[in-house]
Each structure stands twice: as C-alpha cells, then as structure tokens.
C-alpha cells in the first residue's frame, strides 16, 4: 500500500482513537507499521502526529476535551515521536540547535521538527521547552552550531523570542524561526531579526538546504519602532496586577486568571514591538473563544478596559486596545 494512501483520514482516525484511549502501545505500533511499509519519517511525523496534535488542540479549545485528556494524548504522541526518532541513522551534515521560546512548555511540535531535520541528515541538539535566552547564548558559545531553529507557538511569547534572536545573533548564529507565534506566513520573524521562517518541519529542512548569509543575520537586530515598547516592558508586572485587581476573580480561579492576564499583556507588548495591530486582535479573538466556551468573556472586556485606562500617556497603545475592544 502506498504512503499516499496510508496516511489518509482512516489512518488519522485510527491514530486519534489510540490517543483518545491513551493507548501508547497501539499508537507506537501504528507508526512503526507505517515505517515498515516504507512511509518516510517526515510523513509519519508531519502528516500523522502533527495533524493529530492540531485536532487535540481544537478539542481542548472547544471544551470537548479536558486538560487531563489533552495531556494524556500529548504524552502518547511524545512517545511515538521518540520511537520514530530511534529509527533514524547517524548524522552526515552540520549541527543545528532546536529550542522553544522561554515560557512555552508545549514542546511536541519542536520535537517533531528536530526529528524531521535529523532524518534529513543533520546533527540536532534539542534543548527542550522554555529555554531562557541567557542559557541559549551560553550553549551557542560553547558549541558553535550552524543555525538555531527557534519555535514560537503563541504570539504573546514574541517578545521573548526577540530576546532569543538577539542573543543568537550576538553569538554569530543565524536563527530560522518556526511556528504560528511569528504570525501568518511568519510576517513578524524578520521584524525581530530572524534569518527566515518556515511553517513546517519540511520547511525547516528546505531552509537549512539554502545558504545563509551570516553577515545579514548576525549582530544587532532591527530596533523596535515605538518608544512605548520599553515603557510597557518596565510596567508589565504593574499592568498585570492592576488588571487582576480589577476583575477580582474567585480564589479558586485566581491563578488561571493571572496567567491569562499576563498572556494578554504580553500580546499587547508584542504588538507594539512588531508594530502590527493584527497580533493583538488575533490573540484577543483566540482568547475570547477559549473564555467564551468557559463563560468568561466579561473578564476579558474588563481586562482590556483596565489596561486602556492605565496607559493613557501612550495614545497609540490606547488606540490598539480600543480597536480590539470593538
């Protein structure tokens, strides 16, 4: 049976069924059967595991799956990625480092990229989830890789991604960005100084096959276009505290509310950093969908209003907030 026919709707449904039941043995066996039938590693990881993970995220977002179900299914897919990776041969090309932006703990997508790049012959060092910029730059100075592959899933983490790009460029290592956190078609990757952006693991392989002009991808990255960016960075904790006080959530939900507010403030700062209102608007729409399924839209509106009142000395920032409130 051809690879094209094997990874279709029926195969995906079978894999999702294994995930739904947290059946790690069945999921691994399915992936190993595909490999035995000649399906390439990249196809198994991208067209099966990654696509299934997108469906898992949709089920969590709509409330049809609990956090526990999502975590159990993701753990099974992590085991599948490990089993598939164990079949990859020795490297024959250069060295790249794969890292997730600090604060992002969902590392499965990055692991898939790392294994697909390894399958293409590269030596890959996977640094894992939530890598602080200072730790990344120390490792780069020690090892001198050819490139950094940087994963950013959420746009509210873009400011931290910018710090990691800056650290990598200062170490003389170009950054290839990946993930939806860099915006549709990666529109914000170049703004923070990344050499290029790819939408998938296959794109990462293709980008590594191209020559990177180190002279244009090292040194100081482009500066932020708005002076209010630095002010917002300094006031981040204050803004989160003000918004949390305004909504005054019940004790049992206070921690979740604080996390959500911090993410929203980070998205605002990121929108200022890349000078693009679409970042904040899209993030607010995503957060509104998640909150609405849990009955919390009023909380989001109150947070936005509080931030607007606290930032009157920054008219452009206030205009961004008013635009997303509608």
Automatic annotation (TrEMBL):
Pfam families: B12-binding, B12-binding_2. Gene3D superfamilies: Cobalamin-binding domain, Methionine synthase domain. Keywords: Cobalt, Metal-binding. The keyword Ion transport does not apply. The keyword Coiled coil does not apply. It comes from the Bacteria. Residues 93-222 form the B12-binding domain. PANTHER family: METHIONINE SYNTHASE. This is Cobalamin-binding protein. It comes from Micromonospora chalcea.
